[in-house]
Specification:
The protein is mainly β. It is 8% helix and 13% strand. Helix 2 links the parallel strand 9 and strand 10 (232-234).
């Protein structure tokens, strides 16, 4: 259960965190609708947790916390991520799942250290091609959105190891998926595929493929042979 925090309590909390040079600022489950400008003083923070609140607008002050390595914004009412987020060059983990986001700002592409990006259940109908610039990205979660396609530019994520796009509207894969040379795990459950794409044989590291609850009605021998390197192939409920 969320503990409702009054503004004066928030100010006192942040003042103490700044005074003690806390590395972790945990403001999750506090019923917050806004975060005061005092947050900008927490320059030594490495982890900022704002999940499970009632934020409509993300605090712009967080974009000045250039030492952040983890930013958690899950389960709020955010319709945007501030455009200044690209200044967080040390950020490794960004999670904004379960928010009604309208779009992802272009300067997310400047997060050169980002390794994990979680944007599940955000009502996204598209993802910007600029995400293809996140060369350090290893894990990407985009489940439960309204995506119809995967941008070709995402195939340049050569360090991507884990990708989940369950519960979307995707019918096929980009032609350049061979660029995912490190991809080990791919989950495409509950989409619109009517076959297991043979192009998946171009993923040299793939060992686990999940395509449950699609529209696949057959699994030809040549597909089975082409994907025989897999340790796990899950095509149940088709």
């Amino acid at each position: 259960m969320a503990v409702m925090m009054e503004l004066w309590e928030l100010e006192k909390f942040l003042e103490k965190a700044i005074e003690e040079c806390r590395k972790v600022i945990n403001l999750s489950h506090r019923g917050l609708t806004i975060v005061t400008g005092r947050l900008a003083g927490a320059v030594g923070a490495r982890n900022l947790l704002l999940n499970h609140n009632k934020l409509l607008v993300p605090p712009e002050e967080m974009c000045s916390l250039t030492n952040l390595t983890e930013l958690i914004l899950d389960n709020n009412m955010l319709t945007m991520i501030p455009s200044g987020i690209g200044r967080l060059s040390k950020l490794r983990v960004l999670s904004a799942s379960h928010n009604p986001l309208v779009a992802i700002p272009e300067d997310v592409a400047n997060l050169s250290s980002l390794q994990c990006l979680w944007l599940s259940n955000c009502q996204l109908s598209s993802v910007p091609s600029c995400l293809g610039h996140l060369k350090s990205l290893q894990k990407l979660g985009l489940r439960s959105n309204e995506l119809c396609r995967i941008p070709e530019e995402l195939c340049s994520l050569s360090n991507l190891r884990w990708l989940c796009m369950d519960d979307n509207l995707i019918k096929d894969l980009p032609t350049s998926i061979g660029g995912w040379v490190e991809l080990v795990y791919l989950s495409l459950n509950s989409n619109r595929f009517d076959e297991v794409p043979l192009s998946l044989q171009n993923l040299p590291s793939l060992v686990s493929l999940h395509m449950r609850r699609n529209n696949i009605n057959s699994l030809p021998d040549d597909t089975i042979v082409a994907l025989s390197f897999l340790y796990c192939l899950d095509v149940r409920e088709n």
